[in-house]
Amino acid sequence: MSLENALIGLKNLLLSRLKSFETNTSFEVNIEDFNSWSSVLTPHFPVSKIDFNELVIITLALVPHIRPHYFDRLIQSVYPNGGAFPHLGGVRGKGHRGFLPSGETALFLLAGENLEDRFQIQHLFSPDHWFAKKQILRLAEPEKNEPEMSGQLIMDREYVEKITLGKITRPSFSSDFPAARITTQQTWDDLVLPKSTLTQIQDILTWLRYKEILLDELEMSSKLKPGYRALFYGPPGTGKTLTANLLGKYTNRDIYRVDLSSVVSKYIGETEKNLANLFNRAENKDWILFFDEADALFGRRTQVQNSHDRYANQEVAYLLQRIETYQGLIILASNFKSNIDEAFIRRFQSIIHFPMPRVQERLYLWQRAFPDKIQLDSEINMRQLAQKFELTGADIMNVVQYVCLNALAKERVKVSYHDITDGIKREFIKSGKLN
């Protein structure tokens, strides 16, 4: 079966409806004739069965993406002399000048002039229908004061790609999607943390692996809030981002780091709009959303002194609502737990401290840091480095990168104690610990 079956079926339906309307005769559809539609389209959607009315609406929304002038040619075949046909609804785009089906198009095809049937079809566009719940299909906002059903039928771009290309293109960073996918080549062995921290991380990993069984097979979905919310806090470079990456890597989930500088806007109402775009794209994808330096957006709310304060607090309230209804994992990262609004703190299932590495952990990091092809001078004492210099894992890797590049530039493979301490000094200057 191919999409041609759906196009032919929709064509026959449209022509039959137009003919019955013109001749004022009864309109009958043999639903069995449309079974081939279902076999082609149903596998692409997160439901086990699609009924006839849903199938027609899906096809209407899909057609402009695969046959841009499909409707214009059909209408012209019935009305060769031209002329408008308002009963069919539809809109014209700005760049695309062909006929774009609207809610009114669906009403005409599926219900004609029968009011009771038309009201039944309208229910398919309610927030309770799986079209809306799964963020699959919706009506565009109509022009001001115009009927609700006059809005264009819009299918989520990812479902269009899935049906037409056979795969979903990952979203790119943009103003509409202020997040970037992150990955890592590192493994759990590269994560050096206290046992207590690792145990808490394991709790998140367990939830990611067994959440479907917990909610569905144990029937806990009515008793538990959807999703999982975790706060990672501690100094920069202590493993917060690496942990988020590893959770995604080892559970086969995409992880997106949210760019808070793009989300937070000085313009009233824009932050809420940016957040809505982000969560709408992420909904039902099972992505991990990682809010780094979360203080900017999740920080303590201010007392209302002006309109901007009021809208800022409104945005926080909106964010609270969205993170509580998100069904996947949300991770907030901050340098200090005290920076996060108490309203958010109460909603975390995990609050995990990422401390500065202790001497033994720093020793392990130093021992694993240098590549095998770099020779270390015999005067270098790794334990002494670990005891003397309080550095994070990220600091140590910055030092190692500096030392290795220096060695390559000087065309030598041996590293001295002075080379390492020079790199450490640069890190301390960068972080403000040395002038």
Automatic annotation (TrEMBL):
Q: Does the keyword ATP-binding apply?
A: yes
Q: Name one Pfam family in it.
A: AAA
GO terms, molecular function = ATP binding; ATP hydrolysis activity
Q: Per UniProt, which keywords does this protein have?
A: ATP-binding, Nucleotide-binding
* Listed InterPro entries: 26S_Proteasome_ATPase, AAA+_ATPase, ATPase_AAA_core, P-loop_NTPase
Q: Which residue intervals define the domain AAA+ ATPase in the entry? A: 226-358
Superkingdom in the source lineage: Bacteria
The reply on keyword Nucleotide-binding is yes
Q: Which family does it belong to?
A: Belongs to the AAA ATPase family.
The name this protein goes by in its record: ATPase AAA
